[in-house]
Design brief:
The structure is a single chain. With about 170 residues, the protein is of the alpha/beta class. Helix content is about 30%, strand content about 25%. Strand 6, helix 5 and strand 7 form a beta-alpha-beta unit.
C-alpha cells in the first residue's frame, strides 16, 4: 500500500451557519450536534483513510463564515489542495454569498479542484435553492460537481469528500 505522508488540505468555504463545522465533524467520525455553535476563527479536523490503495491523511480547515473572519481567509486558504463551498439550501442568501467566497479562494490558491455543497437536504419542505440552479452555477464556475447533503441524516457527506479527494489524487495535485 502506498502511504502519502503529507496531509491533503481541504478548506471549507461559505457563510456562517451553513453547516461547515458539522460537515467536517461528520466526515471525521464525530456525532451530529444540532446545537453546534458558530465557528470563531479557524478549526482543524483530521482523518486518515485508504483511497484507491493509498493511505492518505486529510486536514480539513474550517473558517468561521462571518464577515469579521474574512481577513483570515488568505492564511486559511494557503496550501489548500481542494475547496468545498458550502451553503444552506433553506437560505438563498447563503447561496448568493458563494460567489464572494469563490473569488477570495481563487485569488489565493488559483483553480484547485472544488465542489459545491448544498447542506440541509433533509429539510425538503424548506428548500429554497433548486438543484438545477446550484448545479448549473457549479458547472459554470468550473467546480467538479454539486452535492446536496444532509449532515443531520448522513446523506452524501462522505461521498462529497471522497469525490473531491479522488479528483485531487487523480490530478496529482498533491
Amino acid at each position: 500500500m502506498i502511504k502519502l505522508t503529507i496531509p491533503i488540505k481541504i478548506s471549507l468555504c461559505g457563510p456562517g451557519g451553513v453547516g461547515k463545522t458539522s460537515l467536517a465533524k461528520y466526515f471525521t467520525g464525530q456525532q451530529f450536534n444540532p446545537q453546534e455553535k458558530l465557528t470563531v476563527g479557524i478549526q482543524h479536523f483530521f482523518k486518515k483513510l485508504v483511497l484507491d490503495g493509498k493511505e492518505i491523511s486529510v486536514a480539513i480547515w474550517d473558517l468561521g463564515g462571518e464577515h469579521r473572519f474574512r481577513f483570515l481567509a488568505p492564511m486559511f486558504l494557503k496550501g489548500a489542495k481542494g475547496i468545498i463551498y458550502v451553503f444552506d439550501l433553506t437560505r438563498e442568501e447563503t447561496f448568493l454569498e458563494i460567489e464572494e467566497w469563490r473569488k477570495i479562494s481563487e485569488g489565493v490558491v488559483g483553480n484547485v479542484p472544488s465542489i459545491l455543497v448544498g447542506n440541509k437536504a433533509d429539510l425538503e419542505e424548506l428548500k429554497i435553492v433548486p438543484y438545477s440552479l446550484a448545479r448549473e452555477y457549479a458547472r459554470s464556475k468550473g467546480m467538479l460537481e454539486y452535492f446536496e447533503v444532509s449532515v443531520a441524516k448522513g446523506i452524501n457527506v462522505n461521498e462529497a469528500f471522497i469525490f473531491l479527494l479522488k479528483n485531487i489524487i487523480e490530478r496529482g495535485s498533491l
